[in-house]
Every structure is written in structure tokens, then in C-alpha cells.
Design a protein that fits this description.
The complex is a heterodimer of chains A (about 500) and B (about 325). With about 500 residues, chain A is an alpha/beta fold. Chain A is built from 17 helices and 22 strands. Chain A has a six-stranded mixed β-sheet, sandwiched between helices. Chain A is globular and about 75 Å long. Chain B has a single domain, classed as ABC transporter involved in vitamin B12 uptake, BtuC (Orthogonal Bundle), CATH 1.10.3470. In chain B, the strands form two sheets. A two-stranded antiparallel sheet of chain B has the order 1-4. A two-stranded antiparallel sheet of chain B has the order 2-3. In chain B, helix 5 runs antiparallel to helix 6. Chain B is mainly α. Chain B contains 14 helices and four strands. The radius of gyration of chain B is 20 Å and the shape is globular. Classes of the chains: A alpha/beta (about 500), B mainly alpha (about 325). Chains A and B meet through helix 10 and strand 18 of A and helix 1, helix 9 and helix 10 of B. Chain B: It is found in: Cell membrane. Chain B: GO terms for molecular function: transmembrane transporter activity.
Chain lengths: ~500, ~325
């Protein structure tokens, strides 16, 4: 090798709670190159970058910077080596001004020890101008649009004279011309010898700006190669992998009557012109990348969000759904994503979480019958294989899979005809995942109309009869479950292709 | 966390330490009560006198009734600062109604109605107006006091119907009637919180409002119900307060009752942010406050210093409960 790579990560291994996340991964980034790091959700990209950023420690393997071995014990050491990490979520303090955010933690002070506001403002203005942004440094961040916040986040990394900048999906909230400017800047940085690791799902962007790429899949290195024009297809294939499509769960059974019809459902800024139907016994999937609007769509459908227009027909009858309670009365159940924030009541016991949405089933003369609750729970415990010794303990002490089963039991008890599952297997181990898929299928066979939202394309491919792909609040494609594959879904989810064949 | 798991999953072999820590976390307020009770009986023999004991109960009954409601509000994740002012307002208006009608029943009913209505307004502001409960009830605190002062022209109003004072000054066996009312309310609220869906929803709402709403609970109605409930209990407390001296002062009655009620709830182990806590904890919390007041009186501690001791106890209680 003629020149040393700026960063070399050698044979990195990392497991969380005994689950291997990275297996023998090697990554080299040259000085002055833009290196794309690719892979699906859960491929191990973030973990690898967190190791480089000093947030996690590798179980084994070494990190070299300019040929010297270093231990990234904490984020400060990583920063001292000239590495900046621009996270996907914005780390801005909304109540501070632009320049205060830029210099947070590294304020410039004059000799007397007071803040040198003028100098900080001057530098802020200069750096933002490089990005083609002209902002008053004394503007409060909360008054700025998200894209500006993202640009400020990027400027912050520039301010620290970084040698290597890690960008995790930096363009999610940028407009097209801003993306163009960002790429311009990245090319300039490259010329001045700064290296960039660029994480994105948007393959087109990667092709436009990156020199080389590394693909991770299931925690393993798949390929590192230089970026050549026209091999996007190949990269998609590498990301998805061939062996991944496991056997499909779906079995052919007759669908019943129309359960849910949605026409022209729109909510400004969240989703537009959504049309779809679900029959009894049918499993309909929705997938897409972060920010595609599918969660907002179904939160609206379930009455949690109220600002929407369009027609919702349940069993042929037009309904105005204004509250989750009216949704329940119309016959809809909703297992939300982010179980901890949206689904479980952590201070209530397992039994009480189960009965929460259907208290009427357990009352006599207006008083709750504890015994009836417990009896009902033990029948669900058996049916869904919920592992809990004492159902009176609070639900937060259960594992993720068992918590999810309790939430499913809650909606089974409410006995709705339509069930919406949002990321039903989020943070659940493989065994429990299988059981949940099985249960969903059983429900469909019993004639329930099922809707599944998932960020994982393989998941909807495995269990859905119909798959809708969403991008930026619109349905960009609709497929019959066994007539598509992950690659195709990815094309529509990333916006690389639009308006596919509409079936059904 | 680990200790709790051990307890739950292998009940046959709980370690001594985990059992102690469980006992402490579940019943710390009762243990504290027993310690303070024993300390008080050792320090002053007059403390154990039955009349003194009954006196303590009588003294805590009014704040106790309010604290029951405060527990419900705080379990829902809110707070009600307006209880003292609403008590004065309900008292003043009920005395006017009593005197005008000559009917004790109408007087009592008016107090309950005024309290419930003020609570309902608080609930509307919190649930529909999405105003933080601290702010909404702070506003009500100022407004209710002001209206009471205006109606009574800054002074006191006295009852002119004979028999009204019997409510607070009669005994049943050895107990004063207010004490029995307090006990009855405690049982009532306990049943509401643990045996009805309203109580279940209050816990759910205080623990995780979004999840409660996504569980198809009408969160807004529950909130309005919670504030209306405490308002009604304040009405009950106002009847006792008025009946005790057959008069109510628009300027000083109920002053700082909110602090004592909140203190009792906090000492009783209810979490400030809601979702966790017990009615029984609040009852012992109010008894601890009552014993402390009583002891300081018996030992001739300057009344000016009593607030200091109370403050200290509240802070100590919270420090000990912080060990989650």
C-alpha cells in the first residue's frame, strides 16, 4: 500500500447481550475520499460508526488512525482524533441562538473570560456562507426550518476542523437544491483532504457523490469496491442478499367481505391521496423508509390525529373517526410501534394492561371483577404463549416479545374486526417473532382484516397478501405479495422509481 | 431492578435483602409512621392519651379529605393548587344559601355544587384548553379567593340556622363526625380507584397518556372527572370547616391547605409525575403530618418553627422515595 488509509478498522466484532451485531468487519477510509456505508436497517452500520465515534467499545479488533492504533474509549477521544459524527437526529438546543448552538461546549472567550460573541458570530457566518446559507447568527434555532437545522449541524462539524466526518442520513430533511449545495461542499472538503463516511439509503445520491462503498449485511462485510456508474442494481442486490427471503408464511384462503375502504385520505405535510381497501381475512402490508408517513396515516385512521380529509368506510359504512374510542367502536384495533412509548402502561400490571381497552367485559354493577380479569388473562397466556409467572407484576418487567403479546391480547379482548399492527416485531427476538407472525395468520384465517406496517421489507414479504410501498406520504407501488421482491420494493421506497403498476 | 426480578420469579427463595427492600419500597410510609408514632409516645406520655389521639384525627380530617382528592389528581399526572381558595368560596356561598333558605340540606348541597363546578372548570382548562394543571389551578386559586372576598366584602360570614354546627361538632360513639366523614370518603375513593374503570384509567393516564389514548380511553373526560372529583371533596371539606365555627372567613379560611394536602400525598409516596401511588399512603401521610403538629404543640415548639419541621419532613420523605 503506497499511502496509509486515514482510518482503518480491522476485524471488528461486537455483540449486544450475546447477540452478535458485527462479525469480523473491516473498513478502510482513505484520506480525502467520500466513502459510502450501505446496508439495510439492522445491518450494523450505526454500531460500526458508534465504535468509531467512541460511543461503543468493540469486543475485539483494532482501530488505526493514520497507521497508529488508538482506543476510542469515549466520544472525546474520537473528537480529539479529528472525527466528527453528524447524527441522523438533530442535536440542537431550540432555545439557543444559531451561533450559541454552533459553539456549544467550545465557546470562544476573550481575555477577561467573557464570551466573545462577535467573533463567534463572524465564524458562524463564514462557515454557513460556504454552504450557501445566509442566516443571522443571532436567530433562535427554534424559528428555523428543519433543513436549516441540519445544515447547522453539518457546519458544526466543519467548525471543529475535522479530518473525518461521519454523516448519517444527512439529506433526509433537505430540499433538492440544498442537497446539491451539500454535495458541492463535500467535494470541496474532499479536495482539502477531509474524509467523509456517508450513510444513506438513497442510492442515487451515493452514486453522485461517493468514491467507494462498503456494504454490510447482517453484521458482516459483503463488499468494498469503488463506485462505478451504473452498478446501482448490483449494490441493491448486495444490500438485500439472496439468502434472506425465508419461506413465505401466507397461505391461500378465501377473503370475506370488504372490511375497510379508504379513499383520498390526505393530511397536509404527512400523506396525500391514500386509497386502499382491506377485506376480511386479508393481510395488507405497508412498508417504506423512515419519514414515509405510514405511521401518521394509520394514527389518523385510528383517530389519534384529527387533521385529515378523505373518506373512511368501515364495513361499507362511511365513518367519521375523531378519537381512538370511535375507532374502537367502529371495529378497529391498533398495536402501535415503539411499544414503550405508545403501547404499554408500565406502572400497570400485566393483567391490567390486557384488560385496559375492554373494561366493560370485566365489570359487574360498575365494579371490576378481579377474578374474571385473571381468568381471561390465563386463557390468553396459554393461547399466545405469554411467559410470565405472576401476572400481577408490572408489565415493564417482561421481555419485549411478551409485552407485545400482552398488547395483542388487549386488542383480541376488545374483539375488533380490523387489526392494525405497526412494526409488530420491533425489538423482539427471533423466536417470539415467529410466534407473532403465526398468530397474525391465525387471526386472518378467522376472518379478521389485518394491516401490517413495517420498516422491514422482508417482514411484509413474508406474511402479507398485498404490499403497499410508501415514499414521502404517497403510495408509490402496490404489489401482490408473492409477485415482488425486496429489490423492487427498495426501488419504490427510495423514490428511485415512482408509480408502479397498480394492482387490486 | 434485579432484586425485584428475583422476588417475582423465584418466590421460594427471596434473599433477605431483596425482601427488605421490597417491604421498604411498598410500605415505607407505614414504617415511617410507626417510627414517628413510637418516637412521639416515648418523648411525651400525654401523646398516647385517647383524647389526644382523637384530637389528632379531628385536626387532620379536613386536609385529609382534600388530600384524598389531591392523590387522584396527582396520580393522573396533574396538581390542584386551587383547593384552599375554592374551599373559602364554597364556604362563603354555602353560608349565604343556608341563611337564605334556612335549610341545612341546601347549604350542604350548595357547597358541594360550588366545589364541583370550580373543579369542573379546572378540568376543562386542563383537558380541553391544554393548559398545564399548575397554571390553570394557579389561576383558579387567585380567582376563587377574589370572588370569595368580593362576596363577603373581605370579612367573614356566619351561619344563622341552628343545627348547622352539629355537622362538625357531633360525636358518634367516641369519634367526631368529621373523622367519620374522612374515613367514609377514604373508603369511597379507595373503591373508586381500585374497583372501577375510572380509577384504572386515572392510573393509566398518569403513567403514559399517549398509550392510554391509543388504548381507546377518553383521556379528556377522565381529566375533567378527576378535577371535578377533587372539587366535590373540597366542597365536603368546606361544609366541615364552616360548620365547625359556624362561620367562614373569605380571607384566611383554607389558606395554604393546598400545601398540606400536596405534602401529605408526597409523604404518602405518590409519584409527582403520576401513575404510581396509593390512597392508603396518603392517609398515613396526613397522619404523619398530624402527629408532627401535635407533638410540636405538646412540646411547646414555637408555632413559627413548625413550618420548618414540616418542610424538612417533606424533603426527607422525597429523598428516601427517590430510590427507584
Amino acid at each position: 500500500m503506497t499511502s496509509q488509509p486515514f482510518v482503518a478498522m480491522n476485524q471488528i466484532d461486537k455483540s449486544f447481550n450475546g447477540v452478535p451485531v458485527l462479525k469480523n468487519v473491516t473498513l478502510e477510509v482513505e484520506k480525502g475520499e467520500i466513502h459510502a456505508l450501505l446496508g439495510e436497517n439492522g445491518a450494523g452500520k450505526s454500531t460500526l460508526m458508534n465504535i468509531l465515534g467512541g460511543i461503543h467499545q468493540p469486543d475485539s479488533g483494532q482501530v488505526f488512525i493514520e497507521g497508529k492504533q488508538v482506543t476510542m474509549a469515549n466520544p472525546h477521544i474520537s473528537q480529539a482524533h479529528g472525527i466528527s459524527f453528524i447524527h441522523q437526529e438533530l442535536n440542537m438546543v431550540n432555545d439557543l441562538k444559531v451561533y450559541e448552538n454552533m459553539f456549544l461546549g467550545s465557546e470562544i472567550r476573550n481575555k477577561a473570560g467573557f464570551l466573545n460573541v462577535e467573533e463567534m458570530c463572524r465564524q458562524t457566518r463564514e462557515i454557513l456562507a460556504e454552504l450557501g446559507v445566509f442566516l443571522n447568527p443571532k436567530e433562535y434555532v427554534r424559528n428555523l426550518a428543519t433543513s436549516y437545522k441540519q445544515l447547522i449541524e453539518i457546519s458544526k462539524a466543519l467548525l471543529h476542523k475535522s479530518q473525518l466526518i461521519i454523516m448519517d442520513e444527512p439529506t433526509t430533511s433537505l430540499a433538492e437544491h440544498e442537497v446539491g449545495r451539500l454535495f458541492e461542499l463535500m467535494r470541496n472538503l474532499k479536495k482539502s483532504g477531509v474524509s467523509i463516511i456517508y450513510i444513506s439509503h438513497k442510492l442515487k445520491e451515493i452514486q453522485a457523490v461517493c468514491d467507494r462503498y462498503t456494504v454490510l449485511r447482517d453484521g458482516q462485510l459483503v463488499k468494498t469496491d469503488s463506485m462505478q456508474a451504473g452498478n446501482l442494481e448490483e449494490i441493491t442486490k448486495l444490500m438485500v442478499g439472496k439468502a434472506i427471503s425465508q419461506e413465505r408464511f401466507v397461505h391461500g384462503h378465501e377473503f370475506g367481505d370488504m372490511a375497510l375502504e379508504v379513499e383520498r385520505l390526505s393530511s397536509p405535510g404527512l400523506f396525500q391521496d391514500i386509497d386502499f381497501t382491506v377485506r376480511k381475512g386479508q393481510i395488507v402490508g405497508f412498508t417504506g423508509l423512515a419519514g414515509d408517513g405510514r405511521t401518521e396515516l394509520f394514527e389518523s385512521l385510528f383517530g389519534y390525529r384529527k387533521k385529515y380529509t378523505g373518506i373512511i368506510k368501515v364495513k361499507g359504512k362511511a365513518m367519521k373517526i375523531t378519537h381512538p374510542r370511535t375507532a374502537l367502536q367502529a371495529g378497529m384495533g391498533y398495536v402501535p410501534k415503539d411499544r414503550k412509548e405508545n403501547a404499554i402502561i408500565k406502572d400497570l400490571s400485566v393483567v391490567h394492561n390486557m384488560s385496559l381497552s375492554s373494561m366493560g367485559n370485566f365489570e359487574r354493577w360498575g365494579f371490576i371483577q378481579d377474578k374474571r380479569e385473571l381468568e381471561k388473562f390465563s386463557s390468553y397466556k396459554k393461547a399466545l404463549n405469554i411467559k410470565v409467572a405472576n401476572p400481577r407484576i408490572t408489565i415493564d418487567k417482561l421481555s419485549g416479545g411478551n409485552q407485545q403479546k400482552v398488547i395483542i391480547a388487549k386488542w383480541l379482548e376488545a374483539d375488533t374486526d380490523i387489526l392494525i399492527f405497526d412494526n409488530p416485531t420491533q425489538g423482539i427476538d427471533v423466536g417470539a417473532k415467529q410466534e407473532i407472525y403465526q398468530e397474525i395468520l391465525e387471526l386472518a384465517k378467522l376472518g379478521k382484516a389485518i394491516i401490517i406496517l413495517s420498516s422491514e421489507a422482508p417482514e411484509v414479504l413474508r406474511i402479507c397478501h398485498v404490499i403497499n410501498v410508501m415514499y414521502h406520504g404517497e403510495i408509490t407501488a402496490r404489489f401482490i405479495g408473492d409477485e415482488t421482491n425486496e429489490e423492487e420494493i427498495m426501488h419504490y421506497a427510495t423514490g428511485a422509481k415512482r408509480e408502479g403498476e397498480h394492482i387490486g | 431492578m434485579d432484586n425485584i426480578n428475583t422476588k417475582e420469579y423465584s418466590p421460594e427463595s427471596p434473599s433477605m435483602k431483596s425482601r427488605l427492600s421490597w417491604l421498604w419500597s411498598e410500605y415505607s410510609v407505614i414504617i415511617a409512621f410507626i417510627i414517628i408514632f413510637i418516637a412521639a409516645s416515648v418523648m411525651n406520655p400525654r401523646f398516647l392519651d385517647i383524647n389526644n389521639q382523637l384530637n389528632i384525627l379531628m385536626q387532620v380530617s379536613i386536609i385529609g379529605i382534600i388530600a384524598l382528592g389531591m392523590t387522584v389528581v396527582m396520580l393522573s399526572g396533574g396538581i390542584d393548587l386551587s383547593v384552599g381558595s375554592v374551599l373559602a368560596l364554597a364556604g362563603v356561598i354555602s353560608v349565604l344559601a343556608l341563611n337564605a333558605s334556612g335549610s341545612i340540606l341546601i347549604g350542604v348541597f350548595t357547597a358541594l355544587l360550588v366545589g364541583a363546578f370550580a373543579g369542573f372548570l379546572n378540568g376543562l382548562m386542563v383537558a380541553k384548553g391544554r393548559i398545564a394543571s399548575f397554571i390553570a389551578t394557579l389561576g383558579m386559586m387567585a380567582a376563587a379567593r377574589s370572588i370569595a372576598l368580593y362576596i363577603a366584602e373581605g370579612g367573614s360570614v356566619s351561619g344563622e340556622v341552628s343545627g348547622f354546627t352539629a355537622i362538625a361538632n357531633n360525636n358518634v360513639w367516641i369519634f367526631d363526625l368529621p373523622v367519620l366523614i374522612f374515613f367514609a370518603m377514604a373508603v369511597l375513593i379507595y373503591i373508586v380507584m381500585h374497583k372501577t374503570r375510572f380509577g384504572r384509567y386515572v392510573y393509566a393516564l398518569g403513567s403514559n397518556e399517549k398509550a392510554a389514548m391509543l388504548s381507546a380511553i377518553r383521556v379528556d373526560r377522565i381529566k375533567i372527572g378527576v378535577y371535578t372529583l377533587i372539587g366535590t371533596l373540597v366542597g365536603v371539606a368546606a361544609v366541615i370547616e364552616t360548620s365547625r365555627l359556624n362561620s367562614i372567613s373569605s380571607s384566611s379560611s383554607g389558606a395554604q391547605y393546598e400545601l398540606d394536602a400536596i405534602a401529605a400525598v408526597i409523604i404518602g409516596g405518590t409519584r409527582m409525575t403520576g401513575g404510581r401511588g396509593k390512597i392508603i399512603g396518603t392517609i398515613f401521610g396526613i397522619l404523619i403530618l398530624g402527629i408532627l403538629n401535635n407533638m410540636m404543640n405538646l412540646m411547646n415548639v414555637s408555632p413559627h418553627l413548625q413550618g420548618f419541621v414540616k418542610g424538612l419532613i417533606i424533603i426527607i420523605a422525597v429523598v428516601f422515595q427517590k430510590r427507584e
